Amino acid sequence: MNVVTTPTTKSVTEQVAAIRAEFPALHQEVHPGKPLVYLDSAATALKPQAVIDAITEVYTKNCANIHRAVHAMSQRATADYEAARESVRAFIGAPSIEEVIFTRGTSEGINLVRFTYGQQNLQLGDEVLVTELEHHSNIVPWQLLCERTGAKLVVVPINDAGEVTEEAFASKLSVRTKIVAFAHVSNALGTVLPVKRFTQLAHDVGAVVVVDGAQGIVHTHVDVVDLDVDFYAFSAHKLYAPTGVGVLYGKRALLEAMPPYEGGGDMIDEVSFEGTTFNDLPHKFEAGTPNIAGVIGLGAAIEWLRAKDLAALHAHSLEVLRYGEAALTELGATLVGTAKDKVSVLAFNAFGAHPTDLGTILDAEGVAIRTGHHCAQPVMAHYEVAGTARASLGIYSTREDIDALIRGLLIAKKMFVRG
Known about the structure:
The protein has 15 helices and 17 strands. It is an alpha/beta fold. The chain has 2 domains: 12-44 and 309-414, Aspartate Aminotransferase, domain 1 (Alpha-Beta Complex), CATH 3.90.1150.10; 53-306, 3-Layer(aba) Sandwich (Aspartate Aminotransferase, domain 2). The strands form 5 sheets. A 7-stranded mixed sheet has the order 4-10-9-8-7-5-6, with helices on both faces. A 4-stranded antiparallel sheet has the order 13-14-17-16, covered by helices on one side. A two-stranded antiparallel sheet has the order 1-2. Helix 2 (49-61) packs antiparallel against helix 11 (292-306), helix 3 packs across helix 11 and helix 13 crosses helix 15 (399-416). 47% of the residues are buried.
């Protein structure tokens, strides 16, 4: 990943403290006397002031449509919008801005590939390979594609640690495999998949690789050229940017051959009742007025991140994760997902309590977590649980957040454990 870091003599603890000061949402009481402890970043990350300011500037100074008008506000908005595309390109190491498509999020990026590449290239007897740990957004589109084309959905199982082993993955590949779709990082367990190796194996049988990068873009270094993935989709709101915006990276040759996803607006070259020609990449896949402020906010978030010492901050996050795993284990909680290579996520059950009850008790103490199946019901089925409590980390997370989580769980333990 092409990351610009700012040299600093600050310790990582000082860096995180400075980062926390940049997130207004962290400085509030969610209940009287209960400051917010935010451990739900896998659902959506909080937004730094730099992103909030960038969005505000759009609506106060540059509130105009893009790519259409010659007046000054439109020109400024267009320049900022396309500058954000360049920021994304640099952040993921894409060869060209033509390979960076703005979407509404990871789900739309995956569905774009399903509707265009998938329906154009799959037929009866072909196979689409997914893993057991996928988010619903990386299962359902492929199920729909298989229903429409006669292809077969093939699932790679996970082991009890929540890992997809290379042996299991390779055993499900065949000459019939045409699309391989898997997460970079599991949203439910935090498992990191070996994207580069799995991509090599998929390419060996002639398959195209689609990666759900919603969590991976936040917690790992992403270089799409090094990984050699064919498509990589992610959402802005996980990356400290606004909701309703995402990115689909695709290799240029594939994107050029794919038909448009939607019709209207910027994706058009010339229109007549006799026929229509379409715009060049990336605009061919960006119909209608986009989320201009959201895209500019994404650009601001990426530039904000590129100014940080990301290597040190990623290492700090892993240290907080290990601290949390040890604390939860000592408390008597059962960790769900114990992969050797994992990030960000502490999924657990405890005291025989329903996860929703744990979440409610924690909320009363100001601790925000997520409970339920996390849009990954096959993962829950594997572990034979209805759901889990999930504490997930962001760039602002600290050991003190984990301590607050444990204090809240001790209150729950007194309620659910007798004697």
